[in-house]
Design goal:
Layout lengths: L4 H22 L2 E7 L6 E6 L5 E5 L3 E5 L7 E4 L8 E6 L5 E5 L4 E6 L7 E6 L6 E6 L5 E8 L2 E7 L7 E2 L12 E2 L8 E3 L5 E4 L1 E2 L3 E4 L2 E4 L9 E8 L11 E7 L10 E4 L19 E4 L5 E5 L2 E5 L7 E4 L5 E4 L6 E4 L5 E6 L1
């Protein structure tokens, strides 16, 4: 039977995207600096599409571009000028949710491009420290935090971040002494499939957690500064529960160390494989661009892999904290200290 033209539309639409991914694996990539000099350390980055990009950082600072990073609007959240917004989730040019990590911990939301922000969650519990936030879609999201009384903090939203409900204490995963999560890039929690998330820990012990329990990671661990900082899951809606994943980290006190700083799995975490050529130092973030193209960043630069994490090329020595790909497009951005924002381009 010959398929109808209507049935071919999705395939025709995605062909340019597939060709683009192939080109990214063949051409030489580089990082173009778009802006820097703003007094903020950026660890939150959300790329809605090729034009709309939001960032969040220290000193209560939020940045937004609606023209692909050519121009940026910087703003301070009123009443939160001393807050450290370590993660952000944006839905369009007007709507975004930000996470202030501690003292106390807050989640805020804007629906007018950052002109005003509404507090949608507050937690004054002693020791509370939020680490990362992730959304499955425009409605469902999750936030995780460091252990309180021996268990990792978790809360969920089902209304686009307008309200948050804490997971009951006895349902939260137990943490070992000295085990926590790193609020390094907002990427130590990710959707695993349509209704499940996975997150990774570090410190004296480094593990991966899902609804089925936890298992040890082979990453460097044993000290407060070691372990997993980031996890990426490829094609979580089609890969039957995130069979292809990659974790990155190391020791953030040793920026150039390549010792056990990255591992990948093709079977959902049953076996973890060490790269033949690892990223060239501690890495705070790792992100899939396509099935085979993977990008990581850290204190001493950016690494680029075209074989799913097996081998890494050091393409930039510019320091970044976080890197994210576009949800609805092809752009790939970076952000770091001193308000530095970069974009992946091809020579």
């Amino acid at each position: 039977m010959i398929p109808s033209f209507k049935a071919l539309i999705p395939l025709l639409f995605f062909l340019p995207f597939l060709n683009h991914y192939d080109n990214y694996s063949k051409k030489q990539p580089e990082v173009k600096i778009l802006t820097s000099g703003t007094k903020t350390s950026i660890r939150g980055l959300s790329v809605v599409n090729d034009n709309v990009v939001w960032v969040s950082g220290s000193n209560g600072t939020i940045g937004r571009s609606i023209d692909g990073g050519k121009n940026w609007v910087w703003m301070k959240v009123s009443g939160f000028e001393r807050s450290d917004f370590r993660d952000i989730e944006a839905f369009d040019g007007a709507t975004a949710v930000i996470m202030a990590v501690d003292s106390p911990a807050y989640i805020l939301k804007t629906i007018n491009g950052g002109k005003t922000w509404k507090v949608v969650y507050e937690n004054k519990t002693k020791g509370m420290f939020l680490d990362a936030m992730e959304f499955w879609n425009d409605l469902s999201g999750i936030v995780i935090g460091d252990p309180i009384d021996g268990r990792f903090f978790i809360a969920r939203t089902f209304d686009g971040g307008d309200s948050w409900k804490e997971i009951p204490y006895d349902k939260r995963p137990e943490a070992e002494k000295g085990e926590a999560c790193f609020a390094a890039s907002g990427t130590n929690v990710r959707p695993l499939d349509r209704d499940e998330a996975v997150f990774v820990s570090g410190g004296t012990r480094s593990r991966i957690f899902s609804k089925n329990g936890s298992s040890d990671l082979p990453l460097l661990q044993g000290k407060e500064t070691t372990g997993a900082n980031s996890i990426a899951v490829w094609d979580n809606k089609k890969m039957n529960g995130g069979k292809r994943m990659i974790v990155a980290g190391g020791d953030f006190n040793d920026a150039t160390s390549t010792e056990r700083n990255c591992f990948y799995t093709n079977d959902g975490g049953k076996t973890w494989i060490a790269p033949e050529t690892p990223p060239h130092g501690y890495r705070s973030c790792v992100e899939y661009y396509s099935k085979n193209v993977v990008i990581s960043c850290g204190l001493n630069g950016v690494d680029y892999s075209t074989d799913g994490g097996k081998n890494w090329d050091w393409i930039s020595k510019q320091s970044f904290n976080v890197c994210r790909t576009s949800k609805l497009g092809l752009a790939f951005y970076f952000a770091g200290n001193n308000g530095t924002i970069g974009k992946l381009v091809m020579k």
